[in-house]
Amino acid sequence: MSKTVVLDAGHFGKRNQSPLVSGYYESERMWMLMRYLQTFLELKGIKVICTRAKQTDDLAVTQRGKLAKGSDLFISLHSNAADDSVTDRVVVYEKLNADTRAHSLAVSLAETVSGIINTKQAYAVKTRANSAGNEYYGVMRGAASTDCPYYYILEHSFHTNRDSALFLLEDENLLALAAAEANNISSFLESDTMTLVQRYQSAANVDGWKPELDVDGDIDEKTREAMSDAQKYNSKGERVKLLQELVGTKADGIFGNLTKSAVKTYQKKEGLKADGIAGLLTWSALLA
Ligand SMILES: [Zn+2]
């Protein structure tokens, strides 16, 4: 089954001009980014629906969010504005009560976009609720009213910051962002249909494990050998990311103290030796 992604270029027409870079309008640049992202996603066999047929269409926010219905993922694309010119960070809004899987895409998008724009401040992944405890943002509220499992607002740093506005004004930079975002999104959606064992096998291969594993979901001798190659403090890579997702901690691919204590907590819960090292027994429990 092919996956469907709904893309929303936040604003229409000429909206949200940068105070420091006069040629920059958030609405125009995010529309352009959306078109590039659409192209890259379609190249990967993903069906894309845009919330607007034309850049100048004015649709209500909740109406746009509701177009998430029946899709696998909804993303609203923005650049942010602050009262100062210093704030320069990527912010991803994820749904309220996001599970670790939903959270992992928010983190990987935030990390990727941050790295490409090269922002001065660290990214943030946030949720925002209104006083009634529902999604604060209209697009998120609209998407939340549908069956769409994953929806996000992706703020491509701040157009009130000169460097970021100048960066986003260049088409080639938008192309780089679109290509990387499409990679994140497609591998996320692809892994959605894989079993945990297949995801482990695929992660081990990305990490360069030899002999390469068949991504077939069978825990065979080769896979067991790989699972015995433990992830522990200071380990890095895709298997660490998967481990972090499964033990419910920030999935940044670097095994630090937080990951170690999350692994220990998991091991205790499973009646395993709580050494904070993910070897054969721990992986067997995680992938079961
Ligand atoms: Zn916006």
Short description:
This protein has 288 residues and is α/β, with parallel strands linked by helices.
Helix percentage range: 40-55%
Largest sheet: 6 strands, mixed
Spatial gap, N to C terminus: 25 Å
Measured by DSSP, the beta-strand proportion falls in 5-15%
Segments where pLDDT lies below 50 for 5+ residues? none
Per DSSP E runs of 2 or more residues, the count of β-strands stands at 6
Structural class: alpha/beta
Number of helices: 11
| Gross morphology | elongated
Radius of gyration: 20 Å
Mean pLDDT: 95
Question: Which ions and ligands are bound to the chains?
Answer: zinc ion
- Helix and strand run: EHEHEEHEHEHHHHHHH
Q: Which key terms come to mind for this protein?
A:
single chain, 288 residues, alpha/beta, six-stranded mixed sheet, 11 helices, 44% helix, 11% strand, binds zinc ion
